[in-house]
């Protein structure tokens, strides 16, 4: 497996690549890697992640681990991709829910 993490300022961490070899997929390895990344990035407010729009296996794992889809773009390396975000900072999480129409007022 492989994990790539890039720090952006003091508030955000971007997970920009990860790989589980095909023969090891479906064994929960990616979910374990994700847990380690989240455990080791608690000092950051947010963790962002980019994925090809059709990578449904990984997108569903991220959604189960409380990542939110916050946007999309076009990558020359990957093609169409989505941007997902995990919030360690609960105030930013509440603000995101308000801005996305998922909550009436931020607390």
Task: Write structural notes for this entry.
This protein is an alpha+beta fold. The protein is built from 3 helices and 5 strands; from the N terminus they run ββαβαββα. It has helices at 29-39, 56-64, 90-99, and strands spanning 2-8, 12-19, 46-52, 68-75, 79-87. The chain has a 5-stranded mixed β-sheet. β4 (68-75) and β5 form a beta hairpin. It is globular.
Q: Could you give a short description of this structure?
A:
A hairpin with a 3-residue loop joins strand 1 and strand 2. This protein has a five-stranded mixed beta sheet. The model has no long low-confidence stretch (mean pLDDT 85).
Supply the key terms.
107 residues, alpha+beta, 5 strands
Strand-residue fraction?
35-45%
Which class do the helix and strand fractions yield? alpha+beta
- Give the proportion of residues in helices: 25-40%
Which strand order do you get reading across the main beta sheet? 1-2-3-5-4
Per DSSP E runs of 2 or more residues, the count of β-strands stands at 5
Shape: globular
Compressed to H and E, one letter per element, the order equals EEHEHEEH
Compute the number of helices: 3
CA(first)-CA(last) distance: 40 Å
Query: Major sheet: size, sense and barrel closure?
Result: 5 strands, mixed
Uncertain runs are none
Mean of residue pLDDT? 85
What is the radius of gyration? Answer: 14 Å
């Amino acid at each position: 497996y492989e994990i790539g993490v890039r720090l952006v300022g003091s508030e955000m961490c971007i997970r920009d690549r990860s790989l589980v070899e095909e023969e090891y997929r479906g064994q929960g390895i990616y979910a374990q890697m994700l847990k380690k990344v989240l455990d080791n990035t608690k000092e950051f407010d947010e963790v962002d992640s980019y994925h090809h729009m059709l990578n449904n296996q990984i997108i569903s794992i991220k959604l189960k681990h409380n990542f939110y889809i916050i946007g999309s773009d076009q990558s020359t390396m990957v093609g169409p991709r989505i941007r997902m975000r995990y919030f360690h900072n609960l105030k930013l999480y509440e603000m995101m829910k308000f801005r996305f129409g998922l909550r009436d007022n931020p607390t």
